Structures are given as C-alpha cells and as structure tokens.
Amino acid sequence: MNTEKPYYNHNRAMSPAMQLVAFTGLTIGLLTLGTAIVFGYIYLRYGPAAVSQLASLNLASPVVLNNLWLLQVVGTTLPILFIPIVFGKLIMHEPEAYLRINTKFSALLILIVLATMAASMPFMESLITFNRKMVFPDSLKKLEKFVKESEASAQKVTAVLLKMNSWWDMIKALLLVGLATAIAEELMFRGCLQTILIRWQKNAHVGIWLTAILFSAFHMEFYGFLPRMALGVLFGYFTVWSGSIWPAVWAHFLNNGTAVVFAYIYGLNGDVKLDAKFDYILPLLSILFTVALLLGYRKVASRKTIAGSI
C-alpha cells in the first residue's frame, strides 16, 4: 500500500514548523502537569517533607519507594500518551495522520518485526558496549562526572521499579514498562513527531532519523544514546513503510519486554556478553541480517493487496 500520501497532504492551516512549536509546548505542558499532580498528591497526603524527598528521589524514604510507580505512570507515561491524542485530535483534527492506529497491514509484518528485533540484538549489544566506553575530552571532565552520577542515580530508580519478587511483579512490569510505555512513546514519537518532521523536511528518511535522535535525547541517557537512536530508526521505518503505528509498538514492546524478563531472571546486571572471538563478526552479520529483513519488511508492506491483512 502507498503510505506516503498521509505524510505530505497536510493541513495547511498550520505550517510544520508551527506544528513542531505547538507539539513542543504541549509536551512541556502535559509533562509538567502530570508531575505537578503527583507532587500535589504527595504534598496533601504526606506533607512538604515528602515532596522534598520525592524531588531528590531519596530512595531511603519509604514515601519515595512507595510512590515511584505513581511518578512513572502519572508523571510520565500518561502525559506522553495524551500528547499525541490531544495534538492529533484536538489541535490538528487529523487523528489518523498523527496516530496511525487504523491502517491495515499484513500479519506477516509482525513475524518480520520479531525476526528483525532478534537479528539486531548482537549489533545493539555492540553499540551499547561502544557507547559505554565513550569518554569526554579533558575540558569536559566535570560534565562527564555529572552525566555518570545522574545516570547512576537513574539506574538506581530503575532497579527499584524493576525489583520483581514474583511472577505478578514481572507481569506488572511487562504491562507498565513494556506495553504501556511502548504504546505511549510510539504514538508520541513515530505517530506524531515523525509525521511533523517528515512534513517539514519533505523527506521520510530525514524525518525518521531526526525523530530517532530526539527520541533518544528525550530519555537523557548519554551512555545509552546510540543504541536507543538505532532502535528509533528501526521503529521509524516500521511505521513509515507500513503506514501503521502497531508494528513499531510491537517492536518497542519486544525490546522493553525482553529487558524486563532478563531483569527478572538474571537481575539488572545480567547483561549477555558476546564471545570475544565474535566481537566483529557477529555484529557485522547482525547488521546484514537486519538490513535484509528490513528490505523484506518494505517489500511486504508495499503490496497493495495482501491476503490475511489486519
């Protein structure tokens, strides 16, 4: 099917540049509102001291520990979900163009996405390793120290959120970290922001890569920037070539869900290390297989009529 038209036949009442400004303002506003709701609730229930503890993410505080999921869901996930819905439906009045939730696509794409995510794992692992070994120049050592301390603090919060003592804890994490986050972030980035940037640049490839860069920057993790950007590129092509957000949501869920399951089984330090003798061969093969699968995905998605479409 031809999925280019919805990107370029846009509402000319607002230019893509102004759409980006409106989207940015809405993002800041709703994220601020979500955080304010959480802090207001904490203030009313526990008092001002608890607000200070939550603001500093003091993990020694029982109040903070008991309300981290509230901060995650109400302060981050729900606002991210509402941003594209409000923008697409209420501001632009083009919900399908910005959400991409109703486009039919071949069920075969689901299997290709699964294979692509599996094939890309060695390459992503190599990017993770490369990114973690990056060092700042001597003139920016203070910034490097700040970045490392900030990310170490964020990892401690993640460790608390992903502390799973039972199957129910894992299922809850899969639903909230895996599925809910995947849906919210894909609607926001691949549905909404990517559409804006493609319309602005009039080039799907530029829009996909710019969105991937902003997607990774949004997470504010320097030592995870490259693999997250690479994932964003995959999610972007999954969306553009199929015309639907759901293959990207599925890929995003596979990535997050795998991390949750591995954290449950092995702990957060249970990274799978590549055998040294395959340090270059396996990532190279991973790239080749991933590209081949992406080309297959594009071919299947481009068919105008496919039996068994969903």
Automatic annotation (TrEMBL):
The chain crosses the membrane at residues 20-44, 64-87, 108-130, 167-185, 206-225, 245-266, 278-297. GO terms for biological process: proteolysis. It comes from the Bacteria. Residues 170-257 form the CAAX prenyl protease 2/Lysostaphin resistance protein A-like domain. InterPro entries: CAAX_protease (IPR052710), Rce1/LyrA-like_dom (IPR003675). One of its GO terms (molecular function) is peptidase activity. Keywords: Hydrolase, Membrane, Protease, Transmembrane, Transmembrane helix. This is Membrane protease YdiL (CAAX protease family).
